[in-house]
């Protein structure tokens, strides 16, 4: 009985938190890997469709919050139009450190799982290297440059836990220290964002988000509890324990009955709204913890409001609705009895004794 009263008190004292927060992640949480591919073309000085350079890349990243993250990306380019061929399969490699900003979560807040569609901004600096084996390439000394990428990912999340993401990314990449008039437009003319030293790019990518320590593939929302509420609950439990110690054993036996021939684990309980006998989602989640094939006895109770006959019927209805729910889940129900009003602390409950 003591445990039953304490559980009832805990249920009655439960309150909703004033705010929600994202559960703290561990070092290797929220890591993802992806592949991408598409075409790029020099922004100015030629017809875009006549100078498309195919590329393929790899991106590895981590989200530190639902809004902010970092990624390392490297893309290989298989053409270097509109300039003369350098004679290799891979003509250029651009490796970047990118900051990622989930614009959808920034403005709309994080709801506990990724939206089906999100907009993500990416920006960062990188290192570019030109490959080649032609005579012109071998005589050219400036084959490295400082790059900067700016882009937007239009992302679609899918999968049972939104662990997959497909995105379409238009972007622009600058050669910050490129020099006009050189064989490959590379050199060292100072750092600048010059549109004539840039390429526009359209890529599509597929990302897989690895499983986290929280059991999902994404951030998880938790409901923090106020310490003052916890202290108040502990105080209430202590008061109930003292009150129970003063009650005669005959009163306790009105609710708790010995189950002959079997041991009983700690009783479970579900609560009902005043005058109601329907199961809430919280009540169902408690009942779902009872294993299929278990044997139970159920006691329904009601609060003092109303007539004795009405309270008796209401308590029986509560016992019956719990019994029917458990039977449908394959649980063996031995008894389901309504006991009416059972004191001031053990009311509006259904108590389930599991053998």
TrEMBL record:
PROSITE patterns reported in the protein's UniProt record: OMPA_2
Keyword Membrane recorded: yes
Keywords carried by this UniProt record: Membrane, Signal
Record SUPFAM superfamilies: OmpA-like
Coiled coil (residue ranges): none
Name recorded for this polypeptide: OmpA/MotB/Pal peptidoglycan-associating domain protein
GO cellular component labels: membrane
Pfam families according to UniProt: OmpA (PF00691)
């Amino acid at each position: 009985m003591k445990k039953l009263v304490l559980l009832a008190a805990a249920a009655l004292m439960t309150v909703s938190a004033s705010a929600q927060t994202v559960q703290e992640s561990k070092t290797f949480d929220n890591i993802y890997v992806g592949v991408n591919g598409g075409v790029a073309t020099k922004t100015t000085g030629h017809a875009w469709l006549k100078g498309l350079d195919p590329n393929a890349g790899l991106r590895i990243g981590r989200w530190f919050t639902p809004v902010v993250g970092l990624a390392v990306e490297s893309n290989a380019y298989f053409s270097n139009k509109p300039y003369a061929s350098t004679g290799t399969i891979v003509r250029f490699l651009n490796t970047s450190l990118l900051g990622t900003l989930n614009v959808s979560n920034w403005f709309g807040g994080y709801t506990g799982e990724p939206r089906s569609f999100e907009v993500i901004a990416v920006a960062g600096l990188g290192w570019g290297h030109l490959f080649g084996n032609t005579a012109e390439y071998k005589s050219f000394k400036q084959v490295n440059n400082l790059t900067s990428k700016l882009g937007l990912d239009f992302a679609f999340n899918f999968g049972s836990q939104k662990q997959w993401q497909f995105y379409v990314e238009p972007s622009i990449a600058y050669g910050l220290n490129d020099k006009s008039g050189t064989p490959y437009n590379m050199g060292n003319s100072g750092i600048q964002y010059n549109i004539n030293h840039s390429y526009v790019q359209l890529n599509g990518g597929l990302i897989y988000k690895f499983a986290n320590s929280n059991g999902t593939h994404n951030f998880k929302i938790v409901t923090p509890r106020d310490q003052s509420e916890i202290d108040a609950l502990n105080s209430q439990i202590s008061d109930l324990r003292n009150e129970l110690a003063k009650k005669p054993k005959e009163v306790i036996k009105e609710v708790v009955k010995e189950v002959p021939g079997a041991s009983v684990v700690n009783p479970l309980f579900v609560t009902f709204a005043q005058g109601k006998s329907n199961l809430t989602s919280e009540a169902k989640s408690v009942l779902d913890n009872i294993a299929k094939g278990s044997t139970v006895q159920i006691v329904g109770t009601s609060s003092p409001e109303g007539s004795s006959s009405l309270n008796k019927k209401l308590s029986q209805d509560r016992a019956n609705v719990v019994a029917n729910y458990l039977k449908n889940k394959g649980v063996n129900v031995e008894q389901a009895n309504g006991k009416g009003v059972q004191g001031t602390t053990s009311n509006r409950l259904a108590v389930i004794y599991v053998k």
